[in-house]
Amino acid sequence: MSLFNKLKKAFVPKDEPVKFPEEIELEKLEERKRQQQSVQAHVTDEEHHVEQDIEQETEGVIEPPEEVVFAQDEFDNDSGLMSLEEFEQWESEQIGAKFKQGLEKSREQFQGALNNLMSQYRTVDEDFFEALEEMLIQADVGFQTVMDLTDELRDYARKENITETIYLKEIIVEKIVEIYNQDETLDEEMNITAGELNVILMVGVNGVGKTTTIGKLAHRYKAQGKTVMLAAGDTFRAGAIDQLQVWGDRVGVEVVRQAEGSDPAAVMYDAVHAAKKQGVDVLICDTAGRLQNKKNLMNELGKIKRVLQKVIPEAPHEVLLALDATTGQNALSQAKSFKEVTDVTGIVLTKLDGTAKGGIVLAIRNELSIPVKYVGLGEKLDDLQPFNAERYVYGLFADMIEASNDDMDKG
Ligand SMILES: Nc1nc2c(ncn2[C@@H]2O[C@H](COP(=O)(O)OP(=O)(O)O)[C@@H](O)[C@H]2O)c(=O)[nH]1
Ligand SMILES: [Mg+2]
């Protein structure tokens, strides 16, 4: 099956989808959840404090925010349940829709540029390849990756005798996936083991989206039935602890905190002990994003790790570096700096929805050799999505893929 057909099958909702009764129920629940979230999202800090005061007055019984639970009876209607296969298809289409929406800006840019290029250069020649190279570099794809990609295309066109650029369209997408997946040692899966305490350390400079990502991750793990705890390790920046607390309250997970200005390693000490004692599955640790001084940062992260390892020798199981996609090449240089101070196991590329230069994903993968594990596709709780190349190219080329048909297969 051609790549486009495969992606189409995986991600594009079928025309006039037949809705299962459960699906309609799920939509209703999702809608309720969305309404709830948007209400929660509008709770300002001030309101939040008022809420806290009220909670404290009521004997300190802090109830977690009410959650949407898929109550058994909501599904138990006579008409039979969605099969696992149907559910997986439905889920895949939901994920496809998220990537399509989150990559809208990049897609407009990418597809527009590609279409222009193909109408300007109809025959496959060196001028076309040079223009293509320039276009990809403009999209932040990264020099080396662009060269690899166009070399492969030149070979392919020669071998298959392709003379019209239009027939290279699908191959370009295919090669992007191939180049992305070529290093099989880079695993996108999170190193999380069931039945154990797993520690995730979140690092990155200020403002890239660490705290927000922690909230979204906590939500994901909780939805999977795991118990989650957060550690407010950014004790440096004013308001950072409260910001994490707001996320903790919103998602309904405990936040271990100390006063502003205290030693982050001391917070981690408390957190990892509490997490172990309570049998928590996932402890996610926020950190301060100071990078003015590499040596300080190295010392601070080193100390945090030593404290964690006293309780859990394998910790941290993941060190996730958050990078802001809208900062382009700057994100790459941040990543290089962080690689020098600590072992980064994965990247969370945030704010991909905010850039038209989504090619940065390819540059990160190929220039840093660190897997992108999650991408931020918006500000909502479920806008953090596990990353893979197929989802990504679907998001980047959705219109092209949807418009394709079997006749487009060539070779
Ligand atoms: N549009 C968008 N905004 C994001 C995303 N991730 C984070 N943000 C925003 O980025 C800003 C900084 O995030 P924050 O978590 O405080 O960054 P930190 O300083 O690294 O902890 C906040 O306004 C977030 O809402 C994303 O994936 N998409
Ligand atoms: Mg923060």
UniProtKB/TrEMBL annotation:
Q: Does Kinase count among this protein's keywords?
A: no
Q: Which reaction does it catalyse?
A: GTP + H2O = GDP + phosphate + H(+)
**Compartment(s):** Cell membrane; Cytoplasm
Spell out the protein name for this chain. Answer: Signal recognition particle receptor FtsY
User: Its Enzyme Commission number?
Assistant: 3.6.5.4
Q: What InterPro entries does the annotation carry?
A: AAA+_ATPase (IPR003593), P-loop_NTPase (IPR027417), Signal_recog_particl_SRP54_hlx (IPR013822), SR_rcpt_FtsY (IPR004390), SRP/SRP_N (IPR036225), SRP54_GTPase_dom (IPR000897), SRP54_N_sf (IPR042101)
Q: Which UniProt keywords apply?
A: Cell membrane, Cytoplasm, GTP-binding, Hydrolase, Membrane, Nucleotide-binding, Receptor
Q: Where is this region: Disordered?
A: 31-58
